[in-house]
Automatic annotation (TrEMBL):
Molecular-function annotations in GO: DNA-directed DNA polymerase activity
Endpoints of the signal sequence: none
Membership in a protein family: Belongs to the initiator RepB protein family.
Protein name: Initiator Replication protein
GO BP of this protein: DNA replication initiation
Organism: Xylanibacter ruminicola (Prevotella ruminicola)
Domain Initiator Rep protein WH1: 39-192
């Protein structure tokens, strides 16, 4: 998991289908042709830190395509025999990965793959969380006679590539092979993970009356730095520094990672070689002049494009907003039917009066309760359902998220200004607030008849 807060994918839908399958010439550094096709990685790989260089990761993309053709398309699971895990590559394949003029460099990257481990986490059959590191490639051979490269894919990595039914990311192999830095590769993978029908759910924001827009991803900077491998990494036992920290300021992160990868993905999108790109926005700072603690990533695709002009956000443009207004789903019944279904409806007029006075006492001052009860009794003399009507509008107000999370002052004002003054108009009448000069702040003490709810 990338985030500390709860997240949910409402519907795992691939968003990486280009208009039609086609061959494209790789711009840099490879030459040749590669087909746009979709491949899958487990999110355990997508969310793991950047430990591979540009050519190394391109090699992994290439191997993923080979795994798809050899196993996934044939509905085969992880092979039992280690001999079936070998893949045979040629100089042409290496030229496709790193460029025909850079085959020796790609060869060196291929050899390095066998030395590197990728961190993974999973739960075993007992539901226990397991953390570990696995190889992508665990052996490598070069045939001096045939010129073939024999690469054996680690059996430990195969479950993260095939037979994946949940918690996976689908991305376009052709687009991935075009990317020109290890950071744009990682950003493309992350955007692919959240570019479908995804909405980040945060109960705290929902309680404030708004939710995150779809395809807006809030990321804590500590998580971002971990994924992009920017912090210092030490051996847990020897404490020896494995990799030093880089881009320690947010200014550097913005310039060398966020802006650079944004422009690269946008250019590919504009050239119709990618189906996604992104905007980014700093999250709130902690105090004046404080550090940036989070960022928002706004993901755009051909199916869900950016509104207005499709270009990276610049200062002076309309401000980005990660939220959309949220309204509690409207009940299918109207207020009159809800009132008739209320448990107090058949309780009798005297019980309703006592219940209403207690309910008002939860939120209003003592003199306000006296004032409103006097007005409601006058109305009750002319309308049998007056007590129930007031109870109903207050109970409807209590169900609203902003009311539930609001302060005592907010709830009091909400009852006076909206429930009694506005919402009661659905029954054809309303109650004006009492004169401010006569108010007394003392609260009543009443038996809580609503504690059962």
């Amino acid at each position: 998991m990338i985030f500390k807060m709860k997240q949910k994918i409402e519907n795992e839908v691939s968003c990486l289908n280009l208009s039609e399958p086609m061959n494209i010439t790789l711009r840099y550094p490879a030459v040749g042709k590669i087909t746009h096709e979709q491949v899958r990685w487990s999110n355990a790989i997508v969310n793991s830190p950047v430990v591979y260089g540009l050519i190394e990761r391109r090699t992994l993309y290439f191997i993923t395509g080979e795994v798809k053709h050899k196993y996934t398309e044939k509905n085969l699971g992880v092979p039992d025999s280690w001999k079936d895990l070998y893949f045979h590559l040629t100089d042409d394949d290496l030229g496709l990965i790193g460029g025909q003029k850079n085959v020796p460099r790609t060869y060196a990257a291929l050899r390095e793959l066998a030395k590197k481990l990728v961190p993974v986490t999973f739960k075993n059959e007992q539901g226990q969380l397991i953390r570990g590191e696995v190889h992508w490639v665990d052996s490598f051979f070069y045939n001096t006679e045939t010129g073939l490269y024999d690469v054996r894919v680690s059996p430990e990595i195969m479950p993260y590539l095939i037979d994946i039914s949940k918690s996976f990311t689908t991305f376009d192999l052709g687009t991935a092979m075009l990317l020109r830095s290890k950071y744009s590769q990682k950003m493309y993978e992350l955007c692919s993970q959240f570019c479908g029908d995804f909405r980040f759910l945060d109960s705290g924001e929902k309680a404030q009356g708004h939710v995150y827009k779809k395809r807006v991803v809030p990321i804590q900077m500590e998580d971002f730095r971990r994924i992009f491998n920017l912090d210092e990494v030490r051996d847990p036992r020897t404490k020896k520094v494995i990799t030093p920290a880089i881009y320690t300021s947010f200014k550097e992160v913005r310039q060398f990672i966020l802006e650079a990868t944004q422009m690269e993905l946008f250019e590919l999108y504009a050239a119709k070689h990618s189906n996604l790109w992104f905007d980014f926005q700093e999250g709130p700072r902690k105090g004046r002049g404080g550090k940036v603690s989070s960022i928002f990533i706004y993901i755009y695709t051909k199916e869900f494009p950016k509104e207005g002009i499709e270009k990276p956000w610049q200062k002076g443009d309309e401000p980005l907003s990660p939220f959309e207004e949220y309204a509690e789903p409207v009940e299918h019944t109207d207020i009159h039917q809800r009132m008739r279904e209320n448990v107090w409806y058949n309780a009798g007029k005297e019980a309703q009066e006592i219940a209403l006075q207690t309910l008002l006492g939860h939120y209003l001052h003592e003199d306000e309760v006296f004032y409103y009860m006097k007005q409601i009794r006058l109305k009750a003399g002319r309308s049998y359902d007056s007590y129930m009507q007031v109870i109903q509008v207050i109970q409807d107000k209590e169900k609203q998220p902003k009311f539930k999370s609001g302060t005592d002052t907010y709830r009091r004002n909400s009852i006076i200004k909206y429930a009694l003054r506005v919402n009661l108009k659905e029954f054809g009448w309303s109650l004006e607030p009492m004169n401010a000069t006569t108010k007394n702040k003392k609260k009543p003490i009443e038996q809580d008849l609503f504690s059962y709810r």
